[in-house]
Amino acid sequence: MSAASSKARLFDGFAAVGKALSSGRRLELLDVLAQGPRSVERLAGEIGQSVANTSAHLQVLLTAGLVSTERDGNRVVYALAGPAVEDLWDALRTTTQAHAAALDRLAVDYLGDRSELETITRAGLVERLRHDPRPLVLDVRPAAEFLAGHVPGAVSVPPDELASRVRRLPTDADVVAYCRGSFCIFADDAVRALRRRRHRAVRLEDGFPEWRRAGLPVAVGDETAAAS
Asked: H/E element holding 27?
């Protein structure tokens, strides 16, 4: 085999991974799996697709080496194949944000006008948590994601419980809400709901995956009681 042919095959191998990323639904799957392993059925529910369609997308990701599988009884559980896959997904988001002007319009269509929402950086939150009074940190991802890992001291307020729970949160505390990342709507919804009730509320600039990947402290399980 010639050097040129070998080089072409090598670059075609890189392209195969790019092709696996060429579907929005498959990127949604990577985004959800960045929060933790999931069964096909749960993933289908998360991205609003049938189990058959979700399974087909997962097979493409599996063939490209981007996800791995594990048996849990009769279920097949999928996970990201490794930290490099999460890095790849982050790099794709960052590059698109920086160079694709249309993304701003698409983000507004989905997330609404964020101009009135204040944010706090990860470093800013770390600093705030070192001093009293500490802000009330809300993890507004689904409960299973909170149990798999969360900011230490955070309180779990799943999205489907937000409307009822926000009324019972203390009004005198500064609140920081976070969810899955920069393009996750759960934290935006939480901050807007809290501000309507005159809470001092901001959202974390990105989300829990970025917090974990930055090497910041992570708590696992339910050692922090859910808000009453």
From this structure: helix 24-33
Q: Select which of 44, 64, 179, 193 is catalytic.
A: 179
User: What is the spatial distance between Cα 27 and Cα 139, in angstroms, rounded to a whole number?
Assistant: 22
128 class by beta-carbon count within 10 Å (0-12 exposed, 13-18 middle, 19+ buried): middle
Query: Coil, strand, or helix at residue 206?
Result: strand
Amino acid at 174: D
184 is catalytic: no
Instruction: Report helix, strand or coil for 78.
Output: strand
SS3 of 131-192: CCCCCEEEECCCHHHHHHCECCCCEECCHHHHHHHHHHCCCCCEEEEEECCCCCHHHHHHHH
Q: What is the mean pLDDT of each run of 10 residues along the chain (228 residues)?
A: 84 93 96 94 94 97 96 92 94 85 77 87 96 94 92 94 87 92 92 91 95 94 54
138: closest CA among 116, 161, 115, 110?
Answer: 161
Angle (CA) 187-189-195 rounded to 5° is: 100
